[in-house]
Amino acid sequence: MASYNHNSDGPINGLSELKQRYLYRALRPNEDFQQDLFCVAPHSKRTINQHIASGLTNPSRFISTTTDLECAIDWAATADQKTSEIYGNERTVIVKIDIKYLKKYYPNVYYEACDLTLQCNIDHYLTSEKQENYAAAYQEVLFVDWIPKGAVSVETILESVSESDTETGTETSSDSEDDSQDYDEYGYYSNECHYEYEDYY
User: Fold this and answer.
1) Which residues pair with 65 in a beta bridge?
2) Residues annotated as region Disordered (predicted)?
3) Residue 189: inside a domain
4) Secondary structure (3-state) at 164
5) Are strands 114-115 and 91-98 parallel, antiparallel or unpaired?
6) What is the 3-state secondary structure (H, E, C) of 98-134?
7) Would 123 be classed as within a structural domain?
8) With the C-alpha atoms ordered 146, 147, 149, 150, is the resulting torsion angle positive or negative?
9) CA spacing 20 to 30 A to 45: which of 4, 55, 88, 186?
10) Which domain holds residue 128?
11) Is 85 exposed, middle or buried (0-12, 13-18, 19+ CB in 10 A)?
């Protein structure tokens, strides 16, 4: 696959600055964790800034992931709420992506990724405060074109909550230890990563 031409006047390419081993992604219904994950538009000319601004309605070569599992869960809930035709399944699979595996077996994928947890990359690639805030809030890391299946495994599976269940207050999970926690209308814990935004992916 052709590489994405990152500029060389400031940003840090690749994932070498990440201190953790795993990244997380909420899969689209047409993605399979047992297969390679591919971008939606491999021939797109859209930039990183454009992907962050409207990646859901305008597909690009980039695949969004996050350093924070709770943010991936929040992504799934937000996308399902705003675009049920895409995230309308009864469940959403959250996968983890092994950075160490990529560095060893797919260094091109590792070094082409864009780590938007780094302020130097945010400053270089993003052109508005809205995009900057969104990328920072969700601790976003972008892959270009694809993610090899060998690096991908299931972290958790989220079950959606039906509208009738939420209206009647029906319990949807028996393993919740704290009844005082706040859950949104999709049954996902409302965490600090939540950031209202128009689009995702």
Assistant:
1) 141
2) 160-185
3) no
4) helix
5) unpaired
6) EHHHHHHHCHHHHHHCEECCCHHHHHHHCCCHHHHHH
7) yes
8) positive
9) 88
10) 22-162
11) exposed
φ/ψ of residue 49, rounded to 5: -60, -45
Q: Say how far residue 150 (Cα) sits from the centre of its chain.
A: 18
Beta-carbon contacts of residue 101 (< 8 Å; ≥ 6 apart): 150, 151
pLDDT digits (tens, 9 = 90+) for 73-126: 988 876 655 444 444 556 789 999 999 999 999 999 999 999 999 999 999 999
Give the torsion sign (CA, 44, 50, 52, 58).
Answer: negative
Report the distance separating Cα 169 and Cα 177, nearest Å. 17
Query: Do the Cβ atoms of 108 and 15 come closer than 8 Å?
Result: no
Asked if residues 158 and 188 have their Cβ atoms less than 8 Å apart, the reply is yes
Q: Do the domain assignments include residue 59? A: yes
In a domain, 124, yes or no: yes
The 10s digit of each residue's pLDDT in 38-88 is 999 999 999 999 999 887 778 999 999 999 999 999 888 766 554 444 445
How many CB atoms within 10 Å of residue 165?
Answer: 14
Query: ∠ CA(83), CA(174), CA(155), 5° rounding?
Result: 55
Tokens 């005082």 label which residue? 180
